[in-house]
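Sequence in, structure out. Go.
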Amino acid sequence: MLKRILIMGIVFLWPLWSVLAFAAHPLITDDTGTQGKGKFLLEVNSEFSYDKERAEGVTTKEKGGEVASLLSYGIRENIDIVLGIPFQWTKTKEDGETISDVDGISDMSLEVKWRFYEKDGFSFALKPGITLPTGNEKKGLGTGKVTYDMFFITTKEMKPWAFHLNLGYIRNENKVDERKDIWHASIAGELEVIKDLKAVANIGIERNPDRTSNTHPAFILGGLIYSVSENFDIDFGIKRGLNKPETDYAILVGIAFRF
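Output:
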């Protein structure tokens, strides 16, 4: 437990030591927003998940989570670079007996978001990215290889509403015999309920990396984002699986600090 707390502390603070998702958490679907030239955004996002399955008379329960630190920097008004460092843990039981209990740093990510069009509340962006094999793939904490992806992002703003669409491709290079070509599609909406408080909703689907399944994980999500100040947000969300391959449910909590 002490080891886990220490590592999580490192993950929380690493972006502050190293001057060098994602959407407005808890959304999975990204928006086209950027930080502006010379500005930073530090996010610390967490997810706590639970999944239960029964097959061939065996009940499997998995509890897990992730704490991810993301540091965004505006190199131009419409271009950000984003560094992500996740820490993950999972504990799996079969019929009450623990068969796996792992934790550690997962694969780091580096992304660039480029908003290339903006007019009359419509905006479009591209977000290419890579992940680096910093996680231990033998423990299920990473892929073991460099992966890359490309996302197309659309945002439409018409206050008090905002809507976002993501279409993505992920080249899932890996050492664990998963599918290598993964597609992603998701949509999200935001509503400013009162000043400084937004209600958010999200639905999406992604190709199953498991070669033995043609049922693709789908989710639905709802949450709130509260702006404590102009530069500090806190958020909360609940994500539910819409089919068996998706995790049954997850609780999401995060903070965001702009400077």
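Check: The CA atoms of residues 9 and 67 lie 10 Å apart. The chain has one domain: 2-258.
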